[in-house]
Amino acid sequence: xxxxxxxxxxxxxxxxxxxxxxxxxxxxxxxxxxxxxxxxxxxxxxxxxxxxxxxxxxxxxxxxxxxxxxxxxxxxxxxxxxxxxxxxxxxxxxxxxxxxxxxxxxxxxxxxxxxxxxxxxxxxxxxxxxxxxxxxxxxxxxxxxxxxxxxxxxxxxxxxxxxxxxxxxxxxxxxxxxxxxxxxxxxxxxxxxxxxxxxxxxxxxxxxxxxxxxxxxxxxxxx
Length: 223
Hints:
Layout: E1 4-9, E2 24-25, E3 28-29, H1 30-38, E4 44-51, H2 54-62, E5 66-69, H3 82-91, E6 97-100, H4 110-121, E7 129-136, E8 164-175, H5 176-182, E9 190-194, H6 206-219
Parallel strand pairs: 1-4, 1-6, 4-5, 7-9
Antiparallel strand pairs: 2-3, 6-8, 7-8
Helix pairs in contact: 3-5
């Protein structure tokens, strides 16, 4: 069985929502909520919080998980690019498989994590990684207002539109070796794991946070 290291990337800087990764959520905050979620997965060998924040490191210690103190230049979104951040994190970890899980998608269900891990355990040769996604069935126009996935001349219901998938930040699974080589969290041949629209909520601004909190208040026990 391919065991996993779960990595939670959680820098302290955030432009739209200050201290976003440790904002109150559920019974704790977004970081601790994600740690406690991942602790429920027995396929995970170790949970590592990768951060530049002393406060988050203390939270990791209190939750009895590991931490990686990330240099400032890999956290400011200016000095180093995201590919360089992925390369740095993956190259400093043991050569194992990584489940990359962001705090900002707190509504991902445990069952979705389990499905993703099981899929990775049995990944066929034609795939190289596992990616969380949602199925999109909407009418899309390009920047010139021309149809992308439908025709003005022949209307079809959304159910009959082509399948388009949106990658979300819920989880990514691949080997640390490949993440380092790709400088990215998934490869060119990903296996997509569809999650629900509620699970796909990504906290990027205050409205997202309000929505996620309200949903968790209503259905948190189901996650």
